[in-house]
Amino acid sequence: MDDLQNFKPSPEDFQKSMDRAKEMLARATNIAVLTGAGVSAESGISTFRDATTGALWEKFDPAKLSSMAGFEEDPALVWEWYITRIKQVVEIAKPNDGHIALGHLATIKPTTVITQNVDDLHELGGSKLVIHLHGDIKTARCLNECGWSDDVNTLNLVAGTTPSCPKCGGLARPNVVWFGEFLDPKVSYAAEYAVSKADLLIVAGSSGQVYPAAGLPWYTQRNGGKIISVNTRHSDHCQLADVFLTGKSGEILKELVSTLLP
Ligand code: NAD
């Protein structure tokens, strides 16, 4: 499996795949794009695979830092991890060539971006129609049912402490979907609708291991749509893909979309 994951096509084979993908893009009339953490990697936001390789976090399991079980066990630790991630998004990250290419694409053909990312780099890159499957890291909400939800800046975020809900005094939590939690049904429906009616789905920077997002390409395939997969490694999405483009999504999406630009 490692051999397959690290497979690199010859330059000639890569070019053939790129040409085929460009033809598919030129023919498409309704496009959906499913993105994962890899699309933000070139902007300096680590994927989960890489997020815990730094000295500070390497001994922690990201699935635990992003789950209710982990939050119940140590909310201050989970908040400390999120404060680090929020800083990456707010202070460091800028949209990369991939986000910008998708912004351009939307000005040429009807395009819906469905992202598993909790950052706002697609919006900053110019995409207008963005469905966030897993929430928004810049907001928080109350763990109780008082209904409070607002920008994280309204909380007093201090590493090593757990912020309280300003409305009821309960625990505040990041407003993101954690492992084991359900997606908002309205968001889920909007994503299923977009991939079902797409005649082309581009899946970029996603491992295809986090469900239900990983199941979305089936809707496109079942309705006769084509699928292009973009990833630095072979991913679970490649099984369904008509074309697999190996490489960094920033470079590949820029090259792919350039075919439509004047
Ligand atoms: P993942 O970490 O499971 O997989 C990332 C994928 O991106 C891998 O297949 C990897 O090979 C690929 N990749 C890495 N760098 C790339 C690049 N430059 N170009 C193209 N591909 C690249 O991420 P996932 O599939 O999104 O699922 C994990 C969960 O992590 C999601 O729920 C998501 O919400 C969350 N997450 C979000 C962010 C963010 O908001 N930026 C960051 C990390 C994790």
Structure description:
The protein is α/β, with parallel strands linked by helices. Helix content is 39%, strand content 17%. The chain is built from twelve helices and nine strands. A six-stranded parallel beta sheet has the order 3-2-1-7-8-9, sandwiched between helices. Helix 8 runs parallel beside helix 12 and helix 10 runs parallel beside helix 11. It is elongated. Nicotinamide-adenine-dinucleotide (NAD) binds next to helix 3, helix 4 and strand 8.
Notable characteristics:
single chain; 262 residues; alpha/beta; 6-stranded parallel sheet; 3-stranded antiparallel sheet; 12 helices; binds nicotinamide-adenine-dinucleotide
Briefly summarize what is shown.
This protein has 262 residues and is an alpha/beta fold. The protein is 39% helix and 17% strand.
Number of strands: 9
Strand content: 15-25%
Strand order of the largest sheet: 3-2-1-7-8-9
Order of SSEs: HHEHHHHHHEHEEEEHEHEEH
Query: How much is the radius of gyration in Å?
Result: 19 Å
State the distance separating the first and last CA atoms. Answer: 41 Å
Mean pLDDT: 92
Helical content class: 25-40%
Shape: elongated
Topology:
Elements: H1 2-5, H2 11-27, E1 31-35, H3 38-41, H4 48-51, H5 62-65, H6 68-73, H7 75-92, H8 97-108, E2 111-115, H9 121-124, E3 130-132, E4 135-142, E5 149-151, E6 172-176, H10 185-197, E7 200-204, H11 216-222, E8 226-231, E9 243-246, H12 249-258
Parallel strand pairs: 1-2, 1-7, 2-3, 7-8, 8-9
Antiparallel strand pairs: 4-5, 4-6
The protein binds nicotinamide-adenine-dinucleotide (NAD).
Nicotinamide-adenine-dinucleotide binds next to α3, α4 and β8.
